[in-house]
Amino acid sequence: MGSETVLPGKKRDSILQAAVKVFSKKGFHRARMDEIAEKAGVAKGTLYYNFASKSKLFSAAVTEGIETIVIQIQAQLDAEMPFEEHFRKLIACNVDLYLQHGDLARIVFNEVSSGIENDILTDIQRARNRYIDCVAGQLDNGRRTGHIKDVDLYLTAVALVGMLDNLCNLRLQNPRAVGRDQLVDLLTELLRSGLTIH
Amino acid sequence: MGSETVLPGKKRDSILQAAVKVFSKKGFHRARMDEIAEKAGVAKGTLYYNFASKSKLFSAAVTEGIETIVIQIQAQLDAEMPFEEHFRKLIACNVDLYLQHGDLARIVFNEVSSGIENDILTDIQRARNRYIDCVAGQLDNGRRTGHIKDVDLYLTAVALVGMLDNLCNLRLQNPRAVGRDQLVDLLTELLRSGLTIH
Amino acid sequence: MGSETVLPGKKRDSILQAAVKVFSKKGFHRARMDEIAEKAGVAKGTLYYNFASKSKLFSAAVTEGIETIVIQIQAQLDAEMPFEEHFRKLIACNVDLYLQHGDLARIVFNEVSSGIENDILTDIQRARNRYIDCVAGQLDNGRRTGHIKDVDLYLTAVALVGMLDNLCNLRLQNPRAVGRDQLVDLLTELLRSGLTIH
Amino acid sequence: MGSETVLPGKKRDSILQAAVKVFSKKGFHRARMDEIAEKAGVAKGTLYYNFASKSKLFSAAVTEGIETIVIQIQAQLDAEMPFEEHFRKLIACNVDLYLQHGDLARIVFNEVSSGIENDILTDIQRARNRYIDCVAGQLDNGRRTGHIKDVDLYLTAVALVGMLDNLCNLRLQNPRAVGRDQLVDLLTELLRSGLTIH
DNA sequence: GATGAATGAGAGTTCATTCAT
DNA sequence: AATGAATGAACTCTCATTCAT
């Protein structure tokens, strides 16, 4: 009770958190293991005690981070609710998570071509697909209830995530350029009824 | 005429072409000046004779590449044509250019957070905006003729480019995953009338 | 008696055995304490509980290993026997021990210049001399009975050990290159009557 | 004439010379590239500009050094001379070269088991064999003229080199322990007529 | 204009050693 | 007595940049 017992995994977690921050700010190649260690409050050797290499640390940070997000999305949207509400909430939820975890998102969606080793790249793409599949799954609910057109939902989710990525980054880079609600509104409107006047 | 005089700028151009290839394949940080020099068929010192630094070379490669693309878009779409046709052609033209210049596109849309120096980053973002403004300008044609809703066209162009980026990359990484026409159809349908059944 | 008490020194011994194997296979500098600990079936900390440092462990492994060998040589050769037989047996016995303990031998005869700390080097050289003196002592038996020339027996033992080392290593590295008996024959002939025809 | 033109390969040579010194004093693993660079009077990067890796530098130093020695041996012994003289000179020549190039010799004969990468090890063994074959070739002259017994000359050369190595090292480590002439005399006597009195 | 040998700051990784438990 | 997570100094190798020619 009175003891300051350290929780198991505490150090590993602080490393992962520091890694997400640094990888996000600097990108994979400019991120220095020194900086991650310093931010995590451990010695550099400790990084290597817990992760075999910079690449593996990167991979772990991305994979575990995405998993957390996917779980949050499903928790917030699992409840039954009218389609219109569900649709808007799906978008709002994704926007909010993106804005919250911009660090992680930047990694997952932008580090695709930075010359990382192939097996690590595969890990990132797997994480990315984990997220896209989650979104596609949510859209599928709408289709099964007859509210959504019969389009390829995987491709649609890819497109949606692309919009999300670009628009949220706009706000993250310059919060005054566009408001959170404005983003949700635009995305909802575009996805609901498109761009043209019939 | 009969002389073998090398055109001025010929070396500069071959460097730029090599640079786009290498930067695209390796990303900014993994790209090596050695490799660019070799691919361009010049000595390494020549790179520095023409460009002050790796960053400046990167910046030039991106800026000049984007300019070419913007010019091509405008050339293909300037003619008068019915809205429906123009709308589809706008999307098709962007898809085709993206698939053609995947190298360059990957740089412009993915290298945002790779820890490049700030002034170079600004150059890239300027190039990116140049492209987005071009797309937004095309959409504006539709609005002025009453075919397109009164939404923020800059944000819409950002969203469109996000979809384009994600979907075209899907095809570039795995051509058998999705066809060119399928991409154009999906994008046109989504942007025209959205996702839901009313 | 009935208790499961572990014999004192049991762990120490398993560490020493593991150390000889690893040091021999990898050489002093490439040998890792981790690997020795694993091979010995103890935790890394236990190495340091029993030996002050890697160098001291190395020193102990070499010294104790050589001692065992010297004792074996003397045991096999102490009996009275005719000179010719004794001479051949001396060589055969050394060849066999070398081939058996190639691991240890490689260390003692090859690790001389690997940049080990000086005091440890001294330990190794002491062990080496212990072995050479043992061989010289055996030769001295032959001289006292008038069968061996009046040459410097220490130097001669050094020379003998050099031949032994090189020839046995040849066999250890490629057993098909030369047979055990061939080695004994060659060494006996060379040492008995030299190389030339008078 | 008056210009201080630097000979081509001068830097490469000074690196090789420095490498032999440092590798010999410290052994392969304790030798630091920093120290070699400093001793050679070049920057660290220059080592890597000339040699792909520490191992390759090591390999080059050994291979080129041995080649020089083999050439010297053959130059000094090629002349026609009576067998007795040739035999003694062969030994004297080897002793002198060994004592002169003790640095290199230490590497070639002692670095065998230090955990170097296999392909580099192969290079060293090739160099070693180059030397042994050279000695065996010299002995073969004596056999063809009927002065040397019909023994396996490769094995004999291996044995000879083993004696040479051990005895010369004794002198190199402690010059007062044994004189150069004493070494030549002992080796000549042992090899000529062996150890025993018939 | 063009070259390429030379540079050296910087980064990832290893591993003997320590010490709280 | 024994452990093993944590440490950090040390080391190899990379590569943008310079400059004498």
Could you explain the architecture of this structure?
The structure is a homotetramer of 198-residue chains. With 198 residues, the first copy, chain A, is mainly α. Chain A has a domain at 61-193: Tetracycline Repressor, domain 2 (Orthogonal Bundle), CATH 1.10.357.10. The first copy, chain A, has nine helices and no strands. Chain A has helices at 10-30, 33-40, 44-50, 54-77, 83-100, 102-110, 118-144, 153-173, 180-193. In chain A, helix 4 (54-77) packs antiparallel against helix 5 (83-100), helix 4 runs parallel beside helix 7 and helix 7 packs across helix 8. Chain A is elongated and about 60 Å long. Mean pLDDT of chain A is 89; it is low at 1-6. At the A-B interface, helix 1, helix 6, helix 8 and helix 9 of A face helix 1, helix 6, helix 8 and helix 9 of B. Chain A binds a DNA duplex (21 and 21 nucleotides) through helix 3.
Which descriptors would you attach to this protein?
homotetramer, 198 residues, mainly alpha, Tetracycline Repressor, domain 2, 0% strand, elongated, disordered N terminus, DNA-binding
Strand content of chain A: under 5%
The CATH topology of the domain at 61-193 in chain A comes to: Tetracycline Repressor, domain 2
Return the string of H and E elements of chain A.
HHHHHHHHH
CATH structural architecture of the domain at 61-193 in chain A: Orthogonal Bundle
Oligomer: homotetramer
Number of helices of chain A: 9
- Main pleated-sheet profile of chain A: none
**If you compute it from the alpha carbons, what radius of gyration of chain A comes out, rounded to the nearest whole angstrom?**
19 Å
CATH level 1 name of the domain at 61-193 in chain A: Mainly Alpha
Q: Biggest interface pair, residues each?
A: A-B, 54 and 55 residues
Helix residue percentage of chain A: over 70%
Low-confidence stretches of chain A: 1-6
Structural class of chain A: mainly alpha
